[in-house]
Amino acid sequence: MAAPASAVLDDEPSVAALIAARPQLSMHAFDGLTLEQVPLARIADVLGTPAWVYSAGAMRARLAELKAAMAGLPADVHYAVKANDHLAVLRIMAAGGAGADVVSEGELRRARAAGIPASAIVFSGVGKTEREIRLAITEGIHQLNVESAEELEVISAIASALGGRARVALRVNPDVDAGTHAKITTGTAETKFGIPYDDVPAVYARAAALPGVEPVGLALHIGSQIMSTAPYRAAFARAAEMVRTLRAQGLAVSRMDCGGGLGIGYRDEPDGSPAALAGAMRTAFGGMDLELMVEPGRWLVGPAGVLLATVVLVKGQERFVVLDAAMNELMRPAMYDAWHGIVPLAAGTAVGATTPVDVVGPVCESSDTFARGRALPRLERGARVALLDAGAYGAVMSSTYNGRPLAPIALVDGDRWAVIRERQAHADLWAGERVPEFI
């Protein structure tokens, strides 16, 4: 059974509160839910649903806010491409002065195609292939973040064979719990990421002695969707102590990559604070003569995106609201039990009395569920809704499971909008497949 209304109403923001917390959204009596100055119903009329819509203005404003918070620090912003890798998004980031943090050859090539110079790209990731390392070195990127002593040896061999020199930073695992979901925690000793803290001095000394590599500093990343500065302060303190340890051994350390992970308010709570993050960086690294960098992704683009969907039917004595969007579009609720606001596009629907319902998709998996016991206004067949804060880890994680084509993407900028990815045709689902003659 759906949860009783009393179990959800006290814990959940209203539709009005969700909109009020997002300056890029507004509700108009006639036009309904509007992103910047474009009614989302207008886009749904043209593209159909499901469809993604991004706000260019929101991305620009958030990048400017982050950069302003870092003012006075020797800190560069490297956008985490994995959050949303669309070329248009990368162009917006590049135009705002951000570099890129990439974790694959594909992301590196996307960043370069979007106009981000190699000198502004950091390559992270625990399992870089030889091909990816070779590409990073030949492109002359800003630095490779080394995840293990074993990887360091591979980079040295490849760089030496190429007759080049790779700038590397050692990723420290500070064994700090970020206090976030277990599946997006990356800074504890139990995870696969980084070099154990106590091993760093020996590995850094090894890097200084190896041919083909130039150790330039340290890197860390403790997780994603971090809402408190306490984990950052703890991790940065350990990193600063490691810098002092390495320098005391006569090793040169000039850079500190502070990672990303700053969270957003998926309900109506405040976002993680860039100013507080910058303050934690100043406290830990002020006066240490270090080049600093941050690698935000979700914070920059998450609130800038919505996923539009249409109610296919309501069933089970109005317990289940079935949408045409599914977990293959927005995976986060199924993977992380993530909460996303759901807002009707029509103004008249949005102000109706609420009842608790389960909002589900059409995919043949029980996990294809966006919300359980969610207090929503009455939604009838054909009603359209927006799933909020879908600009990060949304379209980039989409699949074609159940033979569902990838949804289109539109970009809004003021009162203008354009399609930046067409809806995939069904025939494209098998266009690259081959049936051998012996079948």
TrEMBL record:
Active site (UniProt): C364 (proton donor)
PTM sites of type N6-(pyridoxal phosphate)lysine: K82
Binding site for substrate: R298, R332, Y336, E365, Y393
InterPro entries found in the cross-reference section: Ala_racemase/Decarboxylase_C, DAP_deCOOHase_LysA, De-COase2_CS, De-COase2_N, De-COase2_pyr-phos_BS, Orn/DAP/Arg_de-COase, PLP-binding_barrel
CDD domains: PLPDE_III_DapDC
Known catalytic reactions: meso-2,6-diaminopimelate + H(+) = L-lysine + CO2
Residues of the Orn/DAP/Arg decarboxylase 2 N-terminal domain: 59-301
Subunit description: Homodimer.
Entry protein name: Diaminopimelate decarboxylase
Source species of the chain: Rhodovastum atsumiense
Classification lineage: Bacteria, Pseudomonadati, Pseudomonadota, Alphaproteobacteria, Acetobacterales
